[in-house]
């Protein structure tokens, strides 16, 4: 291993001390360490990571994220083209993406040095916004793509198609298209199923549906999901991983399919998804 890059969420408690421990560990092992500096506290997402960290590309073999799931989501989304493994260290609250808790740090860093770990490939979503038959924006998400109403809006209607087949006309607060990784996030809160993160599927979950039909639908990862939105004078938004947003207009189409890039998450053999699931849902 030639080097590691550390991307901290400096707003989290204990981040400074954890970063110091990681830096010392790898430096003592003769491994080069890069650490991302603090961002603007008022606008933490304003800096593009690929631009800010361009010099890292030839220097690091792994990205270590010190924070919570939100920080990992951002790194996976913005740096997916780098095809580098991401190790998450949790200094937040309940998190399903971070592989290591702070108390377990020394032992698992030793596993990194000895290359005693695996890489979990997670599918990501690509969302294209079509307005008046023209593509006006394109986004990537690891957890989910969500179409939802604004805080003071009435219910909205979303027509959903799977490839060329009409699925359902949903009325309510919105619709979530989640990856298996994202099935433990917003989709779970909305009543969706928990899906093994290694499966190649997408989960469609309605948010507060205004109907008796409120079940999630699981579709194959090779499918194209198309959403056509109707506002009825309501505010409506497209959000990616709960971090990136875009205002939608009546008649807009959102086309969602599996992204070519995958998120590469570092995992350890003694920390299975099901063990993590049982522990986190009891917290």
**Portion in beta strands:** 35-45%
Adjacency order of strands in the biggest sheet: 7-6-17-14-9-10
CATH fold assignment of the largest domain: Tumour Suppressor Smad4
CATH class of the largest domain: Mainly Beta
**Fraction in helix:** 10-25%
Specify the CATH architecture of the largest domain.
Sandwich
Radius of gyration: 20 Å
What low-confidence regions span 5 or more consecutive residues with pLDDT below 50? none
The secondary structure category is: alpha+beta
Mean pLDDT: 91
- Please give the number of β-strands: 17
| Biggest β-sheet strands, sense, barrel | 6 strands, antiparallel
Compute the separation of the termini in Å. Answer: 35 Å
**How many domains comprise the coordinates?**
2
CATH superfamily of the largest domain: Probable inorganic polyphosphate/atp-NAD kinase, domain 2
Shape: elongated
Q: What count of helical segments does DSSP give?
A: 6
Helix and strand pattern: EHEHEHEEHEEEEEEHEEEEEEH
Summarize the structure.
The protein is about 20% helix and about 40% strand. With about 280 residues, the chain is of the alpha+beta class. It starts with a strand and ends with a helix.
């Amino acid at each position: 291993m030639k080097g590691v890059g550390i991307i901290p969420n400096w707003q989290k408690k204990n981040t400074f001390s954890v970063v110091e421990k990681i830096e010392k560990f790898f430096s003592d092992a003769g491994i080069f360490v890069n650490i991302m500096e603090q961002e603007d506290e008022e606008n933490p997402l304003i800096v593009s990571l690929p631009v800010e960290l361009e010099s890292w590309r030839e220097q690091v073999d792994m990205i270590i994220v010190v924070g919570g799931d939100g920080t990992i989501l951002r790194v996976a989304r913005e740096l997916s083209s780098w095809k580098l493994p991401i190790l998450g260290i949790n200094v937040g609250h309940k998190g399903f993406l971070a592989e290591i808790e702070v108390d377990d740090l020394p032992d698992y860093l030793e596993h990194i040095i000895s290359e005693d770990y695996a890489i979990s490939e997670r599918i990501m979503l690509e969302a294209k916004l079509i307005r008046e038959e023209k593509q006006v924006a394109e986004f990537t998400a690891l957890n989910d793509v969500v179409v939802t109403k604004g805080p003071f809006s009435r219910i909205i209607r979303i027509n959903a198609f799977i490839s060329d087949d009409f699925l359902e006309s949903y009325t309510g607060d919105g619709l979530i298209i989640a990856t298996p990784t994202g099935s433990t996030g917003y989709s779970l809160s909305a009543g969706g199923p928990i899906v093994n993160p290694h499966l190649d599927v997408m989960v469609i979950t309605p948010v507060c549906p205004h109907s008796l039909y409120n079940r999630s639908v699981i579709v194959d990862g090779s499918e194209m999901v198309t959403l056509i939105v109707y506002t009825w004078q309501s505010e409506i938004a497209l959000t990616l991983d709960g971090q990136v947003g875009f205002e939608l207009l009546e008649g807009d189409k959102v086309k969602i399919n599996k992204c070519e890039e995958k998120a590469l998450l570092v995992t350890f053999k003694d920390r299975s998804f099901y063990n993590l699931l049982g522990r986190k849902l009891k917290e």
